[in-house]
Write a structure and sequence with these properties.
This protein is of the alpha/beta class. It has 2 domains: 125 residues, Ribosome hibernation promotion factor-like (Double Stranded RNA Binding Domain), CATH 3.30.160.100; 44 residues, SHC Adaptor Protein (2-Layer Sandwich), CATH 3.30.505.50. It is built from 4 helices and 8 strands. The protein has a 4-stranded mixed β-sheet with strand order 1-2-3-4, covered by helices on one side. Strands 5-6-7-8 form a 4-stranded mixed β-sheet, covered by helices on one side. A hairpin with a 5-residue loop joins strand 6 and strand 7. Helix 1 runs parallel beside helix 2. Pfam families: Ribosom_S30AE_C (PF16321), Ribosomal_S30AE (PF02482).
């Protein structure tokens, strides 16, 4: 069963908003044969220009579903988030079920017949395998995160992988949408 943690910033989460979010996002459960025990983390933020930003993150066993949407209308934003999450689940379920069938295991995701023909066409389009068109190999140089950011900027990339000099682990620096930088550190 999917549980919900809903937080509002500059906005009070009313029962109507909570019920709408739980009703819409809760419909994702129909895609699973055994509904996972998961918690949907929902952040709703309003800005001074009355724009609303909705972020939903649902960590599952083998995948994390995440969607973010900005909209002037809170309820329309929730609908758009739900559509994005459903597309992610449909795309992922096709791949996972195919792998399970190849191994002779039962399907993880339920087979759903969509009444809308557009959804069926979209599912078939997403059923194709990813094609890697370029491959690179390089050695990871030991450096600190500041050096990695400088190197990333010099190369003009949005991310950079390096070996952290202090931890000797693989890390990634990346440029965020707000122009600031993020750091991902690996753990064992």
């Amino acid at each position: 069963m999917i549980r919900f943690e809903i937080h509002g910033e500059n906005l009070t989460i009313t029962d109507a908003i909570r019920n709408y979010i739980e009703d819409k996002i809760g419909k994702l459960e129909r895609y699973f044969n055994d509904v996972p025990d998961a918690t949907a983390h929902v952040k709703v933020k309003t800005y001074t220009n009355s724009t609303t930003k909705i972020e939903v993150t649902i960590p599952l066993k083998n995948v994390t579903l995440r969607a973010e949407e900005r909209n002037d209308d809170l309820y329309a934003g929730i609908d758009l988030i739900n559509s994005k999450l459903e597309r992610q689940v449909r795309k992922y379920k096709t791949r996972v079920n195919r792998k399970h069938r190849d191994r002779g295991e039962p399907d993880v995701f339920a087979e759903i017949t969509e009444p809308n023909n557009n959804d069926v066409k979209e599912d078939n389009a997403e059923d194709t395998d990813f094609e890697i068109i370029r491959s690179k190999q390089f050695s990871l140089k030991p450096m600190d995160s500041e050096e990695a950011v400088l190197q990333m900027d010099l190369l003009g990339h949005d991310f950079f992988i390096f070996t952290d000099r202090e931890t000797d682990g693989t890390s990634i620096v990346y440029k965020r949408k707000d122009g600031k930088y993020g750091l991902i550190e690996t753990s064992e």
